[in-house]
Amino acid sequence: MIRGGERRARYLGAGLVALAAGFLLTGRWQLALGVGVGALLGWVLSEPVRITWAVFVIAFAVPVTIDPGYPTNPSYTLLLVLFVLAAWGRVLRAERDGWPPKALAAVLVLPMCAVLAGLVHWHGAKPVVVGVAPLLCVGVLGWHLVEEARHDRRTILRIAETLTWFSVAVALFAKYQTVSRTWPIFDQFAYDWTYTSAFDATRAVGISGHPIIYGTFAMAMALVALTVRGRFWYVPVAANLAGLVLSGTRSAWVGMILALGLWLLLQWRKATWRGLGGALAVAAVAGALVAVDPSGLLPTATDPTSTAQSTATPDAPAPSPPAPASGPAAPPSSPAVPASSPAAPASSPAVPASSPAVPASSPAVPASSPAAPASSPAVPASSPAAPTAGSPDSVDVAGSRISDPASADARFTRISVVWAGITHDWSTVVFGNGPEANVRYLENVGIGDGQAQVFDNTYLTFWYNFGLIGLVCLLAMLVLLYRHLRSLPARLLLVAFAAQIFFFDVWLWLGAVAVLLLAVALGAADDRSLSARAVPAPGPRRPETAADDAVAPEAPALPGSKR
C-alpha cells in the first residue's frame, strides 16, 4: 500500500510538472504559478507538522503590501489560507486531540463579541462577516498551534530558532534598504505608493512591507533569541536590535523596553558581571550595524559636486494629494494605511483613506491593516535616489523619531475622537458602534489633521467597535495567557505585543499577529499543566494510531520556565 501511494504521488507530481511546463511554454506564467502554489499547498496539507511550519512562514515572510492578483485584498486572502491550513490540521488531528469544549469556547469568545455588537447596532451582514473573520481565523490558528505544541515541543523550538536565524538575513536586507534609500521588491510591486520607499526612505521594512511590522518582527526575534538561547544566540539578538533601530518603529521600542525590563526583573538573581559584559558587547555590535555606512552597497555612485542639486528626495511627495475618502478605490469595509502609526514619521504624507483595504473598524479588521484598492494612487514617478553626502544617517533618523512631537499630537487627536464615539450613549459604551464602525466614521467624517485616516490603537478601536464587553474579553484573554503560559519567552512576547498594539491597529497585519501566535505556541510547548494525553477514539485502537498518539520525546526546558 505504501509503495502504491508513493507511485501515485510520483505520477501526480509528474503530471503537475508537465501541466506547469505547458502553461509556461504558452506564455501563461500566472497559471503555471497557480499550479505550483496549489501543488505546494497540497503537499503542506498532507501533514500537520508541515501546516505548523507553513503558518509561521506565511505570516512572517509573505507581505500584505504586495498584491500579485489575489481575489480580494491581501490580508483577507492570506487569512483565509491560514484558516484553511489550521482548520484542516485540526481535522487531521481530530482522532488524537478531539474537539475540546474549552478550546472551542476560547476560539469563539472574541468573534461572539463582534456578532453581539453587530446585532445591537445593525448595519447589514457584510460588516459583521468582515469583523468576525480575522478574529475567528486567529482563534483557530492559536488552537492548532497549542495542540501541536503540546504533543511536539521540539518542532516549535526548531521553528523559533529557525526564525531567529532567518531574521539575521532580513536585518542585513534592512540595512541595505536604509543605505540605498530604496525598498527593493516593494518599490516595484507594492500596490500603493505609501508602501514604497517614496513614503519614507529613511526607514527599513525588511520583508514585512511596512516599518511598523518589521519593527514588530525584529522585536519578537530579538526576544526569542535572547530567551530560547540557541547556538550563537547573540548574533540574532544583535542583528534584530539593529533592525529595531533601522525600522524607526517607536511602538516596537516601547514593547522591547518593557519586555527587557520584565526579563531583568525575573532574572536579576542570575545576573553576573560576565553577562553584563556580554550585553554591552551585543549592544555595541548592534550600534555598529546601525551606524556603519557601507558605500559599496549603494546602487549608484553620487557625485559630491552635485549634492546641493540633489537634496530633494521623494520621501514625501507633496504633489500627490490623498484620494478622496469616497473614492471607489476603497471598499466600504476598507480603512486607511497606518501611516500615522507611532512608527510613521509625522512629516510623512497622509495615507489616503481609500488606499488600504484594511478595515479599521473591526478589532479583527483594523484601520491599519492594508488591502489592495481597485485603483490605488500611482507611485510617484521619481524614485528615491541613492543617499547623498548630506543625507541623514540611521542614528540621526532614530533620534529624530524620538524627538518628533507631531505624531504625539496626532495620537491625542485620535484618542479624543474615538473617546467621543465610545461615550456617545450607554449602548456605545457597552456594545460599541458595531463592526466596521471606525471605517464608516473615517470614510464619512474623517479626522481633519492631514494625517492618515486611522485610529491607531487596537484597544480603543476594539472598544469603539465591540464595546466594553469586547474590550474586557480581549484584555482577559491576554491576562489569562500570561497567567497560564509560564515560560519566559512566551511572557516576554506577550508583554511586548500587548504594549505595542496600544499604538496601532493590529489584526490584519499578519506579521504582527504572528508574534502573538508564536508566544502562544512557545508557552504551550513548555507548560506541563497542558496535558498532552490523547483523547481515546471509539472502537478498537490500531497500532499505528497508538504510535501517532505518543507524546514527542522530551525537549530541554526553555530558560526561565516554571514547572
Would you kindly provide a brief summary of this structure?
With about 575 residues, the protein is mainly α.
Query: Main beta sheet, described?
Result: none
Number of strands: 0
Distance between the amino and carboxyl termini: 44 Å
Using the CA coordinates, give the radius of gyration: 24 Å
Overall description:
The protein has one domain (47-268, 277-294, 323-531, 556-563). Helices cover 59% and strands 0% of the residues. It has helices at residues 2-25, 29-45, 48-61, 74-92, 94-97, 101-120, 125-151, 153-180, 186-189, 211-228, 234-247, 250-267, 273-291, 394-403, 406-422, 426-431, 437-444, 458-484, 488-500, 510-525, 543-549. Helix 8 (153-180) crosses helix 11, helix 12 (250-267) runs antiparallel to helix 19 and helix 19 (488-500) runs antiparallel to helix 20 (510-525).
How does the SSE layout of this entry go?
Elements: H1 2-25, H2 29-45, H3 48-61, H4 74-92, H5 94-97, H6 101-120, H7 125-151, H8 153-180, H9 186-189, H10 211-228, H11 234-247, H12 250-267, H13 273-291, H14 394-403, H15 406-422, H16 426-431, H17 437-444, H18 458-484, H19 488-500, H20 510-525, H21 543-549
Biased composition (Pro residues): 316-335
Keywords: Ligase, Membrane, Transmembrane, Transmembrane helix
Region (Disordered): 300-402, 532-563
